[in-house]
Amino acid sequence: MQLPVINNTATEAPKSGCSAGSCGSTDDQMNHLPEHIRQKVFNHPCYSEEAHHYFARMHVAVAPACNIQCNYCNRKYDCANESRPGVVSELHHPDQAVKKVLAVAATIPQMTVLGIAGPGDPLANPERTFSTFRQLAEQAPDIKLCVSTNGLSLPEHVEELSKHNIDHVTITINCVDPDVGAQIYPWIFWKNKRIKGREAAAILIEQQQKGLEMLVARGILVKVNSVMIPGVNDKHLEEVSKIVKSKGAFLHNVMPLISEAEHGTFYGLTGQRGPTHDELQALQDACAGDMNMMRHCRQCRADAVGLLGEDRGAEFTMDKIEAMEINYPEAMKMRAEVHAAINEELESKRLAKEAKVQLVNIQGLKGSPSPQSSPASGRGSNSEKQLLIPARPVLMAVATKGGGVINEHFGHASEFLIYEASSEGVRFIGHRKTIPYCEGGDTCGDGESALDVTIRELAGCEVVLCSKVGYEPWGPLEAAGIQPNGEHAMEAIEDAVLKVYDEMRVAGKLEPKLDEQQKVA
Amino acid sequence: MALEIIESCVNCWACEPLCPSKAIHEAKPHFLIDPDKCTECAGDFEDPQCATICPIEGAILNEDGNAMNPPGSLTGIPLQKLAA
């Protein structure tokens, strides 16, 4: 059985008429976008699931001040080993930031995007943020500029934003209801006063929505980030998704709350838990009926450098940058060549994939959605489903360091990408961070070994694909019901996932589980 | 009459541009308020601006040495959790 590759489709048939172009795969979704938008996102690692395997980004930490307080943030925090928003090692003045961007873009030619994301709010630091953007638009015109904001002072800055080389803005919108907002934001600073509670949330929400509308009206692409907080806004985010989509946001990124007690945040200290992998996926799937969803976000630091999922920030501290000699015109030339080569590779992959889907369609195999087909593409009709051999979906974890291939050793992986294979194809679900097993030893305090952490993080996965797996973790992985597999090294991820899924089908491992059969009946 | 910034300041720059009397300056290890310039915003704003945007409880003191934003007042974290 040959299966096509699909991404980002809803796990269940859409509940109600999912409009064309809103629920296809990531590639599919890109194909449905107007050409001018597709051109804006195809090489943006944060906007395109495919691009993130190839293109790099960086953040410069020039924006330390913030004008609101979020219950998931702690302004005192600064850690070299943490990867999450708001964490930085070095704060930069705009001139230093520009120097750093030029140095990084010369060293990592895959770099396409420079973002300002904090550590506070970029638009609460307008002089520092815009000074950085102005200089970069002039000195590195081939680098796209991005900004991420809480939205409170967005309306007053939309005009200035539209003047620079900025065609993407991310707004963090966690609610559209002030009663929900009052549980997330203890205060805002607004017109020279600190405002608390519901009133504060109402102002913030109004500004965010106004800013979103103004950006869309100017043709600037808007992504909406939402933090999923169980019991606070988890049910509410479906509503948020509908509203931001209706206003023209083109991508929604629902991220899990990070709330470790040691981070000292309100949520961390009051025991508010983050969502489980299953809860996050269920919400993302529920929102996907209405909105293009992003699932590859790594919630990176406000000074992250490199491909998503890696952080090369330590190579570019100010003292190291001072010592570097940068031939900037040469670097820009090299970058153009590298980007052209990647684009060519992506284009040929896209054509190959299209050809494969065509072939499957001609052969008339069931369960072969075409990206170009009707609104319900990606999911066959019920009558088609009944003809399929019963085969339950399987989650597989993949170790990769980029390029869309299986090219990481199990023991060296600091994260795994999670894919779901089903009788309808393969789709990307998300990523799970772990501690590289080879670094060994005990992790922070609780005596749990790195392998235990990985096995816990991979819960629900039945296969882990990597370029190599050592003898030692093999037994514990199998005991946990996760089959290690090192047979597909250097193969394209989605092709390998399909092959393994088909092997499982042939081996009779895909019979629906008993409880699932009962559910269906 | 002057406010004071103490060592728990995280150098976030939020207060500096808001000060109507330019009394706040960047310094190591933390920002400082020039007591000769600070007016506590009298005549300019209802509330002292630095203390009104400061995200760190206890980092800004009034002239009596008391925290303008006492523990728990900004984050809402219960005091026993803060102590733990």
Brief synopsis:
The complex is a heterodimer of chains A (521) and B (84). With 521 residues, chain A is α/β, with parallel strands linked by helices.
How many helices of chain B does DSSP assign? 2
What is the percentage of strand-forming residues of chain A? 15-25%
Question: What profile does the largest beta sheet of chain B have?
Answer: 2 strands, antiparallel
The tally of domains of chain B stands at 1
The spatial strand order of the largest sheet of chain A comes to 10-9-8-5-4-3-1-11
What characteristic shape of chain B results from the CA principal axes? globular
| Helix content, binned percent of chain B | 10-25%
Q: What structural category arises from helix and sheet content of chain A?
A: alpha/beta
Can you list the strand order of the major beta sheet of chain B? 1-4
Provide the low-confidence segments of chain A as ranges. Answer: 7-29, 364-387
Domain Radical SAM core (chain A): 52-301
Biased composition (Low complexity) (chain A): 367-381
Cofactor (chain A): [4Fe-4S] cluster
Family (chain A): Belongs to the radical SAM superfamily. NifB family.
Explain this structure to me?
- The complex is a heterodimer of chains A (521) and B (84).
- With 521 residues, chain A is an alpha/beta fold.
- Chain A has 17 helices and 16 strands.
- An eight-stranded mixed β-sheet of chain A has the order 10-9-8-5-4-3-1-11, with helices on one face.
- In chain A, a hairpin with a 2-residue loop joins β13 (415-422) and β14.
- Chain A starts with 25 loop residues before the first helix and ends with a helix.
- Chain B has helices at 49-53, 79-83, and strands at residues 4-5, 24-25, 32-33, 60-61.
- In chain B, 12% of the residues lie in helices and 10% in strands.
- In chain B, the strands form two sheets. Chain B has a two-stranded antiparallel ribbon.
- Chain B has one domain (1-75): Alpha-Beta Plaits, CATH 3.30.70.20.
- The model of chain B has no long low-confidence stretch (mean pLDDT 93).
- Chain B is globular.
- With 84 residues, chain B is mostly loops.
- The interface between A and B is medium-sized, with 23 and 24 residues.
